[in-house]
Design brief:
mainly alpha; 72% helix
Length: 561
């Protein structure tokens, strides 16, 4: 066993490292909001940014747009996600295992290409609008994806699959005897779902609700692509515009960011208070049942609904990207509508291959280095008696409440306007890796914590009793047991890193450009066809890497007895 002084020394080092990675950028973010200029400038301290930001009436309109869009999308997303999770875990719907895989596949698709595909599907010149106008002889397109409705639609379709992944384990682990008791008392299936299933699963549902609401508040890509042209602005796009226009208005952007950060932390605190005041115990020593609800003929209806969701969420976007990438003019049918010139131009673009290479470096590097770091922190938090480990655990939670755009601004100030020698990292892929590792710190540690809790301490103790060192025990006993969780989380971290835009949008330079930035540049420049090509390539690369990692995970999984 490590001596007390040595354990304190190790913990102090970890607290310094994690605190520097997490707290230092947030401190610099607040500090930057009181500076009269941008990072690296010699501007005096000032509150002028706050005065300008919060005496401007448009700020409150943007805040209102952000809040009501967040609430509406959260409600619809949770209804759809709860329904999908209930169907595949609590009912006798046919082919439930396959349906679960189909819903998962929507999460694998990158958000940016999905948004681009819906502009070709439901934009003014989109396939759906042109087909309906031709069939019904309409003079105006019936749908407009560049609207509040379009933002809500695309957001809900994409995020429902992510929330489904988060809440499905809770639905699968619920004791079915509670639902059976309700039905024996005369309640129908809908009443049981509303009065028993949902209240019992409230911790998982409430946690996912707050999470998706926070993510909608900080959402950037959908609002930028679908709202910018329609002059629909939310907090994130307003901050992006303030910093993207020349000259950049750093004081006002930083003032908006700090208030936005405070709002997010208040929401997380309310979530902890709400969950902590109630008891939700459902698994006890009396036995545990996992029987499903029989729907009769309605099981074919639920099957059809999930299939329809998969078609709308995955098949339509992928087919649209494929078709759109070969069109001569975006959404325009001419005598000879198809061409390969956009593919040729993309591969001859000097930005494309370097951005693809950078994306692979950043995705694989941040996921691999991040998982090693997360596993070490998780082991110390869960498996040891190290002093101050609760403080370390608290530090790992902090990035959960920091919107990606705000975190990027914090890193911008920390590595440009803070400690001088750190400025050498700005614009490199190493800084992009670092900010992505910090952004995913809560997710990685939480997942590995769950895996650490699953195996008993006697496995480690037996190895140590036989004379094995700690390093040998970790390599031969602990690591194999953690491999399934490690690989699964690695896939999620890789996917989120490769398709990330909001977290890196202020931190890249031309040599460190990622493929998501290349897609954004094509779109802003009006090169929609090229954006479609890049989006399709981005989707295929992510799918291949994810499937390969998943296959590797199944090969290395430890068999259970």
């Amino acid at each position: 066993m490590l001596g007390l002084s040595r354990r304190w020394l190790i913990m102090a080092g970890l607290l310094v490292v994690v605190g520097f990675l997490v707290i230092y950028p947030l401190f610099m973010l607040v500090y930057g909001s009181f500076r009269g200029g941008g990072p690296g400038t010699d501007a005096p301290l000032s509150v002028e940014g706050y005065k300008i930001a919060y005496t401007n009436p448009s700020t409150y309109k943007v805040l209102w747009n952000t809040l009501w869009l967040g609430v509406v999308r959260t409600v619809i997303t949770m209804i759809l996600s709860v329904f999908l999770a209930w169907v595949v875990t609590r009912t006798d719907t046919p082919w439930r295992g396959g349906l679960e895989v189909l819903v998962w596949s929507i999460f694998v698709l990158p958000l940016l290409p999905v948004v681009v595909s819906w502009t070709l599907l439901a934009g003014p010149r989109g396939f759906i609008n042109q087909g309906l106008m031709s069939f019904f002889n309409l003079s105006n397109p019936p749908f407009d994806i560049y609207s509040y409705g379009g933002i809500i639609w695309v957001s809900v379709i994409f995020w429902a699959s992510i929330i489904f992944i988060l809440i499905t384990p809770a639905f699968r682990g619920m004791d079915a005897s509670l639902e059976e008791s309700s039905r024996m008392a005369g309640a129908n299936g809908l009443t049981t779902l509303r009065r028993i299933t949902i209240p019992v699963l409230m911790p998982a549902i409430l946690g996912a609700t707050v999470l998706v609401f926070i993510r909608f508040l900080e959402s950037f890509e959908v609002e930028l692509f679908l709202g910018y042209g329609a002059r629909i602005y939310v907090y994130t796009t307003r901050i992006w515009l303030l910093l993207g226009l020349a000259p950049a208005d750093y004081p006002q952007a930083m003032a908006l960011s700090t208030i936005f950060l405070a709002l997010i932390f208040i929401l997380i605190y309310l979530q902890w208070k709400l969950i902590g005041q109630k008891q939700y115990t459902t698994i006890t020593g009396r036995g545990f049942a996992t029987r499903v609800t029989r729907l009769g003929k309605w099981r074919y209806v639920t099957f059809a609904i999930v299939i329809l969701y998969f078609i709308v969420g995955a098949i339509f976007p992928l087919l649209t990207l494929i078709l759109g990438s070969f069109m001569r003019i975006w959404g325009v049918w001419v005598a000879d509508p198809f061409t390969l010139k956009h593919w040729v131009a993309t591969f001859h673009d000097p930005r494309f291959l370097p951005s693809l290479r950078n994306t692979m470096y950043v995705g694989i590097g941040s996921a691999t280095l991040g998982m090693i770091f997360y596993s070490l922190l998780s082991y110390i938090i869960v498996r040891t008696q190290m002093p101050a480990k609760k403080t370390l655990d608290f530090f790992t939670w902090l990035p959960w409440g920091v919107p990606g755009l705000v975190l990027a601004l914090g890193f911008l100030w920390a590595y440009v306007g803070g400690i001088p020698f750190l400025s050498v990292l700005f614009g490199t892929i190493w800084l992009l890796m670092l900010v992505l590792i910090v952004a995913r710190l809560p997710l990685g540690v939480r997942v590995m914590n769950g895996a650490m809790y699953q195996f008993g301490k006697e496995l480690e103790e037996s190895s140590r009793v036989l004379g094995a060192s700690w390093l040998y025990t970790f390599r031969r006993v602990i690591a194999p047991l953690l491999t399934p969780a490690f690989v699964s989380t690695w896939i999620i971290l890789f996917l989120t890193a490769v398709r990330d835009l909001v977290t890196v949008v202020f931190l890249y330079t031309p040599p460190s450009r990622l493929i998501s930035i290349t897609l954004l540049e094509h779109w802003i420049g009006g090169e929609y066809e090229r954006a479609t090509v890049v989006g399709l390539i981005m989707s295929v690369v992510i799918l291949v890497i994810a499937l390969g990692a998943r296959w590797l995970g199944t090969k290395t999984q430890v068999p259970t007895l």
